[in-house]
Design goal:
Layout: H1 7-17, H2 22-28, H3 35-46, H4 49-65, H5 70-86, H6 91-104, H7 128-136
Helix pairs in contact: 1-2, 1-4, 2-3, 5-6
Length: about 140
Amino acid sequence: MPVLSNAKHERFAQGIAKGLSATEAYLKAGYTVEEKSAAEAGSRLSRNIKVRDRITELQERAAKQVGVTLESLTEELEAARQLAMKDDKGASAAVAASMGKAKLHGFLVERSENVNHNYEISDEPMTEEDWAKEHAAEH
């Protein structure tokens, strides 16, 4: 895939490929918005199919340049696991380093759970009795 025609999209994709968050990459790409808006816009832009494909291409190219493959990471993790079975000194650091490399090169993506809270809004206020019943369970 060639360089993206939209220069800001290209800079955003390069930022993500280098490990920046979507918010950081969005702001460094040259967009000027408030940070909260940058987080939302960066998330939205990262779902753009052309941008996503470009990010994947850049990450794959970087991984090839440094010789990191899924196989090499698997071998490192297996060696660390074998070491851990023999002697627990330093094995966790080796595993952490391998996992860090996997993240760095796009083989592992951390996910977070979004929790939405819905609150009811009523035209009528609660009675004192209803409020006391609802909040008595909290104490």
